[in-house]
Structures are given as structure tokens and as C-alpha cells.
Amino acid sequence: MAQLQSIDAIFRQAVETKAMPGIVATAATDRDVVYEGAFGKRDLGQDAAMTLDTVVWIASMTKAITATAAMQLVEKGKLGLDRPAREVVPELGAAKVLEGFDGAGQPRLRAPSRPITLRHLLTHTSGFAYEIWNPEIAQYQAVTGTPGITTCTNAALTTPLMFDPGERWAYGIGIDWAGKMVEAVSGQRLDRYLQENILGPLGMKDTSFKLSASQRARLARVHQRDGGGLSPIDFEIPQDPEFHMGGGGLYGTVGDYLAFARMIMSGGRATAGQILRPETVALMSENHLGALDIPAVRSAMPALSNDVELFPGMRKGWGLSFLINTEPAPTGRAAGSLAWAGLANTYFWIDRTRQVCGVFASQVLPFYDHTAVDLFGKFETEVYRAVGR
Questions:
Q1: What angle do CA 372, 208, 19 make, to 5 degrees?
Q2: What is the DSSP-derived secondary structure letter of residue 338?
Q3: In DSSP terms, which residues pair with 230 in a beta bridge?
Q4: Please, what are the domains in the chain?
């Protein structure tokens, strides 16, 4: 790991100048872990240092784990990618398309032209959207009293579709619904299913929806960037929720997530055995958008997210829960690699071609923080430089 002292210096400067509160990151090849580092504080108001076993809210990095659960059940024939999802979760049959609001401010809704499928949910083409990037969803929630998704209440899942399934790409709550499908056909709550079939076998002992006393003792606090400063805030996913948020409810460590990333990188293989079949991982790694493209995402809630434009000028693909870069990235990431992120500026990539993967975690809002994104890019670049791939 001596070759990666450049990363240490970059991260150390970021926390010493208070540009970031704390950072923890790790990377691996198919052969071994090539980098581990932790810098700064878990909470800017306290003394506790960020450590390799610091627990963070991984937010939407949960999605790939929930998708893995769904694909295990596809392998077993219990779920189908293209069957109407309402056959498994009848509530999905009630979803309507929002066509706007009438003169009295009430939503105008219509039935969708085709049923939602698991493929739609995993690729964000179902029509569901997040209020953070969609002002019409926020307006619908305000008018109808529908709670936001981080309340983990079933009512939060009743927001309308923004378009007919399969017509466009929009980031949203689809994978929360996929988690409901996992529960319906497995007969288990999502936390138990994930523990028995993914987290346990991969040795991800610090990844869960509910924080244990040990995890809470190592938990990093979420910070809000406001102007030039950073302030710790009180934020926590409900610990006794109506439903486990398969789209963003997990807490974990970067080491745990690296174990998951390496499993995907190696075609579903892990020390404990095969988590997914190689052909399933290959299917998850394909672009399922066809002619659709992923547009720049504009923020509707600036305190929670900046505008997001991933790989400007490049056509993006989407697999079964992963962002796909269709051309080589300047960091060294090969075309066709997999990646995604979490709201509090956690990021990962999985390069199945060059067999390199990495995880970067901070706990900062709003999402797509320019400092965090810059540091993640430098981290990835230095990893590829060091491993020579």
C-alpha cells in the first residue's frame, strides 16, 4: 500500500483544512485489498476519529444489495423480470400516472398504459421519482399529506408515476418496491432475507437497517454544508420502520461494502460460495435502457442535493441497479463498469474488465458535493495508477 501514500496526503489535507469532516476509503483488485485509509472526525464537534470500522449511512448504495436479493429470487424462478409486479405486490397495481394539477391544486391522475415490472423498478424506468429531484412529487406530497420516503412508512410508497413505465429514466423509489417484492416471495422481512442470503455469507457484519450498540458507538454523524461551513445535524433512518427501505436504509462500513463489490466483480463468487450465478451478474451488468439516456438531474431540494450530471458528454447506461459508463473514464475506469452512490456522499465503482473496485465514504449533505466528488475522482485515479491496470 506504500504506493498509495499520495491518496493519504490528499485525504489528510481535505480534513485538516475542514473541507471535509471525515473520510474513509478502501479499494481492491481481484487479488487483494490495495488501499485502506481513514481521516478526520466522525463528528466535527467531537474528538472521535474516523476509523476503518466507522459506520456510515450508505443510503442508495443499499439499492445494489436489494437488487442482488431480487436477482437471487429471479434465479430461483420466484420472481420474473418482465412479469407484472402487481402479481407479486398487488399495491403496485394502484400506481397512477400524474398528469399535473387541476385549478384547485388537486392532482390529475390516470392509469398507466402498461404494468410495472421488476425490470422497470431495478432500472428506474418505472415512472416513480424522488421528491429531491422532482418538484411535482414534492407538490403531490404537500397536497395529499403523503410522507417522504425516509419516514419508512408504507404511505411514502404511494406517490404517483411521472410517466408510463418504460418510457423514460427517472431516479426514484422503484427499488424500495423491489424490496417489497423480495419480502412477498421469500416470506421474510427484508432485513432477515438480506442477512441470511447476502450480508451473512459475505461477512458484512456491520451492515444493517437497525444499528446495534456496537455500530452506534462507531457511527459517523451526517454534516450539512452551508456556504463554506460544515455543521453536524441530527439525522437517522427510523430504527423501527413500517418497511425496510431497500432503496436507501442500510448502515455499514466501507470494508463491508468492499466485500459486496468484490463479489459482483468476481461474477457472484465469494469465500462462502456463489452468491449469484456468473450469468446473473453479467445480466445485471448489461445496459437495460435501450435507446433511453440518463439526463442531467436537477435538484428540487438544494439542501439535500446539488444538480447531478454524471460523466458529462458521455452516454450513460443503467444495469439492474447500477450506473454504467459506456466509454472509458478519465480516472482509468474501463467502459462498461458499474457504480453508484449514496445521498450523504458515499460512492463506489466496480470495474469488471480491469478487476478493480473501490468504496469512498463521507457523511455530508447535499449530495454530489463538489469537494467529495473531486476527492473520489482523485482516489480512483491514484488507485488505477498504483495497480497499473
A1: 15
A2: E
A3: 225
A4: 2-62+197-387 (3.40.710.10), 74-184 (no CATH)
Neighbours of 239 (CB within 10 A): 10
| Bridging pattern class, strands 223-226 and 364-365 | parallel
Written as nine digits, the cell of 231 is 455543521
Catalytic annotation present for 96 = no
**Element containing residue 36 per DSSP (H, E):** strand 33-40
pLDDT number for residue 45: 86
Q: Which residue has 456556504 as its cell numbers?
A: 227
pLDDT in tens, 152-194: 999 999 999 999 999 999 999 999 999 999 999 999 999 999 9
Q: Which of 35, 130, 140, 171 is catalytic?
A: 171
Rounded CA separation 63/257 (Å)? 12
Which pairing describes strands 56-57 and 33-40: parallel, antiparallel, or unpaired?
unpaired
**What is the Cβ-side half-sphere exposure of residue 297, based on CA atoms within 13 angstroms?**
23
From 63, 180, 257, 305, active-site residue: 63
d(CA 311, CA 329): 8
Residue 2 above 70 pLDDT?
Answer: no
Our answer to whether residue 212 is catalytic in this structure is no
- Grid cell 413505465 is found at 165
User: Is the model's pLDDT at 1 over the cut of 60?
Assistant: no
d(Cα 360, Cα 170) in Å, to the nearest integer? 25
The pLDDT of residue 3 is 62
3-class SS shares of the chain: helix, strand, coil, % to 5: 35, 20, 45
Task: Identify the active-site residue in 41, 60, 316, 368.
Answer: 60
Check residue 360 and report its DSSP letter: E
For the question of residue 321 being annotated catalytic, the response is no
* Residue the block writes with cell 397536497: 143
Classify 239 as helix, strand or coil: coil
pTM for this one?
Answer: 0.98
CB atoms within 10 A of CB 234: 6
Where helices occur in 59-198 by DSSP H, the ranges are: 62-75, 118-123, 135-144, 174-186, 190-194
Alpha-carbon span 130 to 134, nearest angstrom: 6
Q: How many CB atoms lie within 10 A of CB 384?
A: 19
